[in-house]
Every structure is written in structure tokens, then in C-alpha cells.
Amino acid sequence: GNSVTQMEGPVTLSEEAFLTINCTYTATGYPSLFWYVQYPGEGLQLLLKATKADDKGSNKGFEATYRKETTSFHLEKGSVQVSDSAVYFCALGFRAGTALIFGKGTTLSVSS
Amino acid sequence: NAGVTQTPKFQVLKTGQSMTLQCAQDMNHEYMSWYRQDPGMGLRLIHYSVGAGITDQGEVPNGYNVSRSTTEDFPLRLLSAAPSQTSVYFCASSLGVSDQPQHFGDGTRLSIL
């Protein structure tokens, strides 16, 4: 079946540190891949997306590259800020699918 | 532009009570869905709808009903609340089905005593 696996958190970093949150997927076919972010007390917001192999999604300094050969979509940021503290969800979806399939989420905590 | 609006934001129920969680969107999106979020479980799909008059079950539909009489509204009904339904509920909508970005509401935090 289709599934998404994320690294378990929490991830605790100091401000300006480099961030990587690993995401791998299992899928039959060619899904679109997404990263969503959830700030405390809020709903999920789309952070970035990629629709085909080798695409790079980017937004607000975050990047992720769709790697078909390793079935991965790792989230990276060169210098995190305290305001990046949130829960990050990796997800996949198919054009003819019924819903996004989410990973379990990774909590990021950034301290100054 | 309100986006996806969920009401109420918080609710406490007693076991056996029924209630309706409201969800409305003003983006003319055909696709709407309900998820529940539990610690360590991520988001799990309860029900979804691909248009007015069309609904279907997701991964965890038991104990919940939905209807879609208009494009804008997609209410979720708890028929007889149970403590296992204590969760945070999110409604989402999108233009297409699941390869399009989903727009989420801010959630309803529901406690069943």
C-alpha cells in the first residue's frame, strides 16, 4: 500500500542551525509530494510541494527534492529561526486518489 | 477571504451525546474532507466528498456521519459520542482531489467525558 514515514521527533535545534527532517514514501505509481506545517493551535498550512521526480519545492527558506530513486522527500533549511518551531508533516497524493496520505509528523523546537 | 471555517473551536461532551461539527469554505472547492489528529498517529481521514451530494468513507469512519448538500458546507456528525472520539478534528478543502494542496481549517478540539 501507499505510506509515508517520517523521522521521529522531537527535533531540538539552536537558532541558525541546519535542519533536515527525513521523509520516505512507499507508493504504487507517481504521487505528488507535500510538506505541511502546523503552528501551535492552528491548522495545517502547505509549506511546499513537488509533482514529479527531481522537482525541488521551496518556500520560506525550506527546500525538498523529489527523489524517485531513493523514494525520499527530505525537508531542509539552512538556518532555522525560533519562529520555525512547529510540527511538520510529509504527505503524498495521487491525481485520481481520494485523500492525502500523511506521515505522523515531526515536532521541531528551535531555541534562541 | 475566510478560507475554511470550523465551528466550534472547543467542545466538551458527555458520553452518548450527539453533536455536529461545522465546516464551511468560500473558495468554491469541490473536494472536502474531515481528518482527526491524535498524538503519535498523524492525521487520519474520516470521510470525504468530491462534490455536492457525493460522500465516501475514509480510514476511520465508524461513529461519524457526513452529508454534502451544498458545495460550501460539509458538517461532521457524531451520533453517540464515545471517549475514543476525543481528538482534534480538521476539515480541509481543495480544488481537485488529493494531488492538489489542501486548505485546512483551524480545527475543533473535542473532549468526550
Give a description of the structure.
The complex is a heterodimer of chains A (112) and B (113). Helices cover 0% and strands 50% of the residues of chain A. In chain A, strands 2, 5, 6, 10, 11 and 12 form a six-stranded mixed β-sheet that branches. Chain A is globular, with a radius of gyration of 13 Å. Chain A is an all-beta fold and 112 residues long. The model of chain B has no long low-confidence stretch (mean pLDDT 92). Chains A and B meet through β5 and β6 of A and β5 of B.
Summarize, please.
The complex is a heterodimer of chains A (112) and B (113). By secondary structure, chain A is mainly beta.
Biggest contact: A-B, 25 and 23 residues
**Number of E strands of chain B:** 11
The low-confidence parts of chain B are: none
- Mean pLDDT of chain A equals 93
- Portion of residues in beta strands of chain A equals over 45%
Structural class call of chain A reads mainly beta
What are the main properties of this structure?
heterodimer, A: 112 residues, mainly beta, four-stranded antiparallel sheet, B: 113 residues, seven-stranded mixed sheet
Write the layout of secondary structure elements.
The complex is a heterodimer of chains A (112) and B (113).
Chain A: E1 3-6, E2 11-14, E3 19-21, E4 23-26, E5 32-38, E6 44-50, E7 56-59, E8 62-65, E9 75-77, E10 86-93, E11 101-102, E12 106-111
Chain B: E1 4-7, E2 10-13, E3 19-25, E4 31-38, E5 42-51, E6 54-57, E7 64-66, E8 76-78, E9 87-94, E10 103-104, E11 108-112
Parallel strand pairs in B: 2-11
Antiparallel strand pairs in B: 1-3, 3-8, 4-5, 4-9, 5-6, 7-8, 9-10, 9-11
